[in-house]
Predict the 3D structure of the following.
Amino acid sequence: MGNVNVKQVDRVKQGLWEKSYIPEILRGLSVTAGHFFRNLSPNKSKRTIFTRDYPEEPTDYPDRYRGLHRLMLREDGQVRCVACMCCSTICPADCIHIEAGEHDDPGIEKYPDVFVIDELRCIVCGLCVEACPCDAIRMDSGVHIPPYTERSDAFYGRDLLMELGGLSQAKQGGDRSPS
Amino acid sequence: MPKVTINDTELEVEKGTTILKAAAQAGYEVPHFCYHPALSIPANCRMCLVEVEGAPNLEPACYSEVTDGMVVRTKSERVVKAQKAVLEFILLNHPVDCPICDQAGECKLQDYYMAYDAQESRLRTEKNQKVKVFPIGPEVLYDGERCILCTRCIRFCEEITGTNELTLIQRGDSAEIRTFPGKELDNPYSVCTADICPVGALTSRDFRFKCRVWLLTSTDSVCTGCSNGCNIHLEHFRNEIQRYRPRYNPEVNDYWMCDEGRLTYKEVHDDRLRRPMSNGAALNWHGVTETTRDKLNRALKDGGASHFGFVISPQASCEDLYLAKRFAGDVLEVDNLYLGGKPDGWEDDFLVKADKNPNRQGVNAVFDGLDQFGDIESLIEDMESGAIKNLYMMEKHLPVDDETRGRFLDAIDELDLFVLQGQHHAELSQKAHLALPACSHAETEGTFVNFDGIAQPFEQAFAPHGDSLPHWQIFMKLARAMGSPLSYTFVHQIQDEMFQASQDDGEAAQTPAE
Amino acid sequence: MVEVLISLLKITVIVFVFVMGVASAMTLLGDRKQSAKIQNRVGPNQAKFFGFSLFGFPHFIADGIKMVLKENIVPANANKFLHTIAPALVFMPALIGWSVMPFMDHFCTGTVQTLPDQNYTEICTGPGAEWKNYFSIMHMNSGVLFAFAIAAISVYGAAIAGWASNSKFSLLGGLRSSAQMISYEVSMGLSLAGVLMIYGTLNINEMIRMQGNLLGDWLPMWGIVIQPVAFFLFLLAGLAETKRAPFDLPEGESEIVAGYITEYSSMKFAMMQLAEYAATVFIAALVAVVFLGGWQFPYVYADGIRIFGGHWVPFGEEVWYWISIFLRIGAMVFKILFLVWLQFMMRWTLPRFRYDQVMTLGWKILLPLSIANLFVTALVLVIIW
């Protein structure tokens, strides 16, 4: 073996106690039986089972969990998005499709006429949220992307995304008033 | 020849050179908004201020000419401070609505802010509100808040088009660009103002909200709107042309192009013939090649070449035309050639030409003159009388008015065989016994010869739509099927052969301008 | 006629309801739920009846349906007849042995009396006392021998299954199974011999009656008290007989796929599995009968309660007799269930032995110990009695 770093470990000698098996087996049994009875205890807090019955018992997602997208709203309920395409540009999965439209209000000017996210394509990286200059798209809906049987069900349109949305506290169009 | 030192770089420049140009020669960028090489120099944006040794104040680089022994610093502390101050001043009332601004991505204000300013606004009062989405002309929209008042657009209308529509109204922070009363920015080159606008104040109505500029891929191409052959950046996204933008070529179009030409990209995508068709039913190339071969052979056998007409299109590139000539002359052995193409339109004395076909001079060069082409009127008469029984037609265009075109369409029904090879359905593809899809100049490469005889190459931007093929490949396919070996793999092989042929003829074919 | 009907009833209740019920439930509760609790898991709970998971019981139904619907595969070149009959050969002994297992002393129609000086033998007196019936399918003088004989032939099933499958894994499993079972049967029989010497009978019911005696007037004289070493030896050997962990060498998954049941599928596989569980229950019953007093409920007898210091509290009413019957049947069932539970605990506590260790344990430790136990017992019997 030459210079290979070998450490010789002496085998621990078994005494008569260990050799007779019975007490050691009983010790092992006490451990397993302890678990068994503890986990049968009617007091659930004493049990040591930490498994969650997932679909019945919803998971507590962390605050920054990235779930389904949602489109935030202006105070009058219109979509906040201005169709700047930053999200669709940054999207590595190319799952956001936006078609811009001309808004009647020249102060808003641009809004998404079509806004479709293919949630099946989405890789949930959150870059769209990072890229958004208007706090218009978020992934904090707390709803994970559900399973689909039809591919087309995964195309979330603008109105569907707005239903998940809410009001943002960020002020749009910059702060024009003196601070 | 004055010698000048710019940031430790010593160089000798021609007399009368401005500091900005000298710095560019030395490899230094001097930021500027109002200066444009094709326009006069107002020096009003103050962005290009540089420090000249010995001068008490900073000098505008775009305006000041160099003198011998001048020492210029473009990156000194004073200059940097001045640049910051100027940018802060320009941005004072700027709405910073980059997300909804079409210019974002090619905006000089954006670029310079990131490069020279990059500080927060110190404005503590409300920003000035000015006019938004103002239709200053039929093709151009104006946004007063974004405008930095560089007056490039005003100078363009004064100096290039001479139409004088625009001026500056009001003073100070309420100043805006407006048309003179009763006028509109409606000259035929109006969208050029949007091109030269360094910010998003003037934007094209056609390109508005269509696509973000950073998504565009640019290909060097040539406008097919008329025989002037303006050089363009063909900008496309996902196999679709989003806009044309003029490409600098001092021999053809300088920095400009006309509004009409800009919109010709729509023809590339409208009404496209995507699959080969036989009697209105879509086929694949394999089947249609054999059918076409059989039908052409039968037509030639039954009627002979004298009853066979061939319409050449000046819309096609020189390479396509060369193969058309080979195909019509060597394979079909047809003498009855006709010249198609769009009818003449309006012209002016600047860029727009009456001949709306990009390659009439190319036809002239490839076919050694235009005399051999028959008259379209006589073609229609021959078709009506039955003298022409078979017709092979490139592209949908005919240089005739609508009434004559109607006669032509009726006469098609009399034909034994009508083969259409073109980009568009028009009214023809349903009538055609065989319709072969050809691709546009955006989907292949080639050469156009403009009215002046300048041969200009254009490049392929994206893959052909549908099953369409370049004209030359279709001709090659058919020629091969008919047992005549025409084998080229690349466009440049055709170019080489054409060049050889024209040299043999002793004709001076000009090499591409750019 | 009534006797026949009662026999059929007993067969149905004991074999199909009790044994099969416990064995089947073990497949779920023992192997899956119990192990889950030991390992801090939840265990199966997703199969449901109308939205109720019922502690996972619907999984048992689902498993059954799955097993029935699975394709029944007989390997190529296998001996089809033996391959088909082997599961039955494994399964049947595990059930036949139950014919001699008593769940209670005989039932009397008349008044019941126990005779303390004759090991509390119950005799029926009074009017209508001529009819009595035992709480076992078959009342046999050589009950223990019968049970052992039957248990011993189950090795044929495993060996035949291993051979008939035409698979080397199955063959290895079959060989291991026969070697292991034969080895441990020796020490099992020898450890039992000591007990039999003390009891002096092969009649299981008699043995249980004797365990009703009180040692020093307070300690029930169960087998475990008078033969503690034999109890441990018997329990260990019994564990090995059932071919379950830690003695599941015949099916050692990590070595020989699944041993002699490798090539079985569908209900044949299910029968092999069920046979193992049934054997587990049978071993539990044997241990209970021989060492844990069988149906004896401490201090409770058919006609009264005997408590410390020889106090005798006779039952007055008929109803007390019935209560004592149920108490004693319950005691038997409880003891069996407890031993089954214990075996499963062992299975989930101990890792598998190496094969040479199994043989060493069987031949070099258990066998000498049981012979020594036998010898000492014989010596003590000669000296004291």
Observations:
- Chain A touches chain C through 16 residues (CB under 8 Å).
- The mean pLDDT of chain A is 85.
- Residues 22-40 of chain A form the longest helix (19 residues).
